[in-house]
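This section describes the prediction task in plain terms. A model, or a person checking by hand, is given the sequence of a single protein chain and must write out its three-dimensional structure as a string of tokens. No templates, partner chains or ligands are provided. The sample shown here is typical of the held-out split.
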Amino acid sequence: MSLRTALGAARTTPMSVYKFFSAASVIFLLAVVISCNSSGDHHQIGGNQSAYITLPSRGSVLLLQIDTSNGMVKAADETPQVPGTSPHGLALLPSKKFLYVANSQANTISIFSVGSNGTLSLTGTPINAGSGPAAAIIDPSGRYLLVTNSFSNDISVFSIDSSSGALTEVSGSPFFANNNPSEMLFVSTGNFLYVTNPSNGLVTAFTFDSASGALHQLSTSPYAADSGASALAIDGSQKFLYVANTTAVNPGQVNHGNISAFNIDAATGAITPVTGSPFTSKVGDGPATISVTPDNRFLFATTAGSSYSIWCFTIDATSGQLTATSGSPFSQSAGDLFSLIDTNGNYFYIGSQSSKGISGYTYDPNTGTPKAISGSPFSTGVAPGKMILVR
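The expected answer:
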């Protein structure tokens, strides 16, 4: 933690604390924080962070509160349950004024206004999407919402009214996205979008027109990943794309599943395999989620269960190649629904169907070794769908 960060944390401390401590005490406290950080502890001073998680079987969205001093998760407010909707993917407007939720069973998108305390209120009537809306994402400009429609094999694109949250489908939408489009991810500039097609092990790539919201599939797309291509991650340099292939067969190994790695052409968006790709674990099956740490050092992939369930790799910043860390794979409680790492790199959260909740971890910033947060897994009552952190 830098001195500026420490001072910023101190400015958020309640006024009563300032009255209690002398100026000398505050300086001493900052010195302790800086000293602790230099010993390898990458956690921040306390406070709370919000998150939202969909609960498909309950037809609702749950507000979570995360204690940033220890990573513990607590359920807060839940939206009214709406049977027959099966909410799944969700996306938060950068202004944090509106949350969009894809209802996979109802084939609609719900719009929620976000209160000052994080609570959600349904705004208007849900609008129509394609068939089987799954993932939802907002482009880096914050002007468009994109939703994959798994059963109609396309992507719906909507322009967003920033003041009311209202959605208007753009001209040409929905855009064909090959068979069973699932997860999607933008490069940071917003000009390229990558989408997985699990049923045929492909990655479909598009250019994105930020002026109109139109998607144009690259002439060289789609690209072969491997069987069950699902989750996506892009490293911090925006040079490498990683894909979790859940059911891929690994020649010479009894386990299934691997990670495809691709070079990204910054000019065209085209992708080519990294030398040595795909990468896999020596044991463990079915990686379904994937995350890259904010420092760009580690890549985590997770599987369901608790045996060999968390794979950890170091990323070669030059080649994009992956190397398993010492001790990987780790036999810890994990899941195959989602994985998220907070922007400070403090905590790692995994959605699990079997535990009906969220497994939470810290990880060693030098080795990547995960360590369960006290109280983990954190129950959501029923199996969650997707989760988003309020950043």
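For orientation: Residues 1-46 have pLDDT under 50 and may be disordered.
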